[in-house]
User: What shape does this take?
Amino acid sequence: MKKPIKPARENISPSDLTFGLSTCKRCLWIKYWYKVIMPGQFPLVGTMASLQEEHFQGADMPTIDPSLRPGKVTKWGEWVKSKPLMVNGVESRWRILGKYDLVSTNDDGTIGLIDCKVSDSERDNGQFYSPQLEAYAYSLENPAAGRAQSVASMGLLVWKPTHAVGDSLENYGFGVFQKYLPVERDQANFLRVIGEFIEVLEGDLPDSGPTCTTCIYLNERSALDNA
Assistant: This one.
């Protein structure tokens, strides 16, 4: 596969720092250089995420978790874009571009960043999602335009569906168990991950990921076509 002169996109999605590197570097490389992406099959994710974000608009932060600084959720679902990322002291072509879930304005002038999840996965922990949240924080603290802000806290707000609720045709739904998982700031790890990420993108086409379901399907399909 010939590498184009210029990538099809130069804005890095925060979620790719969590799922891209750990899933398949080949698919990741093709996504950024050719803008070819395997369609996802998550029909309810957007709907559930929107309901969760709407529920907490204007919420007092300590009511979400007592550990959070006094403040209110004042922004939700907004896009943020960073200045060009620095790699080994050199400005790269790459930037962070993503849409956060919830941001608070705290009484002390700082802000809080919350990423909403509707999931029952055991991987929903701070360490796994740290690079993704740090990418949002980096964009807020190093914006392409506008005033830089200081991110005092990051965390995951997880809804785990547990049971059905309701008593009429117009009043059914799902009950959830809610938990807030604080994510410690780790800028050093973010810089390490983003450096590895950009190194993959700037290199040649990587090998397929051994557990990548997309690559496995395409390889098996190709073998059948050539049989």
Observations:
- Residues 11-225 form a domain with the Lambda Exonuclease; Chain A fold (CATH 3.90.320).
